[in-house]
Amino acid sequence: MNQNSALHELNDRSREIFRRVVETYLETGEPVGSRTLTRALSEKLSAATVRNVMQDLELMGLLDSPHVSAGRMPSQQGLRLFVDGMMEVDPVTATDRAAIDQTLGNDDPDTGVLLDRVSTALSSITRGASLVLMPKHEAPIRHIEFVSLGPDRALVVLVFADGHVENRLFTPPAGQTPSSMREAGNFLNAMAEGKTLSELRGQIGQEIAARRRELDVLAAELVQSGMALWDHQSSDPRLIVRGRSNLLDQEIADLDRIRVLFDDLERKRDIVEFLELAEQGDGVRIFIGSENKLFSLSGSALVVSPYMNADRKIVGAVGVIGPTRLNYGRIVPIVDYTAQLVGRVLSGRKG
Questions:
Q1: 240 near 119, Cβ under 8 Å?
Q2: In angstroms, how far is the first alpha carbon of the chain from the final one?
Q3: The domain at 3-85 falls in which architecture?
C-alpha cells in the first residue's frame, strides 16, 4: 500500500488516533495503550473503540504491537506516512537559531574548523549524532608529489593553485623505488596543470593505457593506488561526525543496536558515498530504518540536507542521525536552517 492510498483510507477518527499514537511514541519511546489515548482524544471514545481502531491500523501495516498485552507503536511504514503526510514542522526556536548562528559568526579562514563547530553545535542542539560532509576541493592542481616514508608507507602531497595543501598516507605497491616515485609524480604533473582533482581522476586510466610503454610498471601502479585515495579513503577527512555519545543517552535499552550504529559511523567512506547520493536531491530528506541501507541493521533514522555554493551547485551536506523516534518536526527545520546558513557563509568566501 502506498502512502497516498493509506492516508486516503483513514477517516477522521482513525487519523487522529494514528497521529496521537505516533506523537506519543516519538515523545516517550514507549508503546501507547488505548487508555492513554482516550484521555488525549478530542472525541470521547471508549477504550474498546480505540483498541478496535488500533487493530485496524495494525492490519494496514501502520502500527506494530511489540507484545500481546502492550500498546501499539508506529511501524516503519507508519512513520513514513506520518512524516510525509501528517507531521507538523515547528519553527526553529530563537535559542536554537542563535546557537547555530554563533558557530558561523567567527570568521575563521579554515573551512574545516568552521564546519567542525557547526557539527558540534548540531549534535548538541538535536541530542543526536551529527554528520557534516565538507565541500570537495575543486581548485586547479599546481603540483603532485609522492614521498616515501618507509618500505610500506608513503605520502601523496597535492598542492592546489589557491595554496590549499592535502596530504594522504597510504601503503604503496611493493617494490617502489625513489625513481618510480619521481616518475609517477612527473607523469601526474604533466597531466594535472590547470585541472581539478575530479577532472584529473577521470583521465588517469586512459592516459596510463595510452602511455603504457613510456610509464614504468611500478610508477603506473603507484599512480593508480595514490590517486585512488581520493575515492576510497577509509577515514575520509571530508566527513565530520560528532555526538556519538548522545545516542547512548537516547537508546540505553538497546545497546546492541547502538554498537552496530557506532560501527557504521566508523566506516566513514560508506557514509560519504551515501551522503553524496543524498546530495542529488534538493531540500531535506528523511531516511527511516531499512530505507537507509547503510544504517538498516541499527534501525536508525537520518535527516539530511545538502548545501550549495554561490553558483547554486550542491557541494556538501549536513545531517542528524538517531533512533527512529527522532523528533522529526523539530529536527527537520534545524537541519534545513543549518544547511542554508552553511551555504550562505561558504558562498561568501573566496576559494
A1: yes
A2: 48
A3: Orthogonal Bundle (1.10)
Q: Do domains 3-85 and 94-136+238-347 have the same CATH topology?
A: no
When the candidates are 3.30.390.10, 3.40.50.300, 3.40.50.2000, 1.10.730.10, the CATH number that belongs to 141-232 is: 3.30.390.10
Record: fold of 94-136+238-347: Beta-Lactamase (3.30.450)
Q: What is the C-alpha separation between 245 and 146, in angstroms, rounded?
A: 38
Pick from 282, 270, 277, 271: which is nearest to 320 by CA? 271
Cβ-Cβ contacts under 8 Å for 14 (sequence gap 6 or more): 53, 56, 57
What pLDDT, in 10s, does the model give residues 249-278?
Answer: 665 446 677 777 777 676 665 676 666 666
Paired with 320 in beta bridges are 130, 303
What whole-number distance in Å separates Cα of residue 264 and Cα of residue 269?
10
Distance CA 338, CA 233 (A): 27
Task: Identify the CA nearest to 300 among candidates 289, 284, 286, 291.
Answer: 289
Q: Where are the domains of the chain?
A: 3-85, 94-136+238-347, 141-232
pLDDT digits (tens, 9 = 90+) for 79-112: 999 999 899 898 999 999 999 999 887 666 678 8
- What are the grid coordinates assigned to 108, written together? 575563521
pTM (whole model) above 0.85: no
- Return the amino acid letter for 347: S
Distance from CA of residue 232 to its chain's centroid?
Answer: 17
Tell me how far apart the alpha carbons of residues 302 and 256 are, in angstroms, rounded to a whole number: 19
CA atoms of 314 and 331, how far apart (whole Å): 21
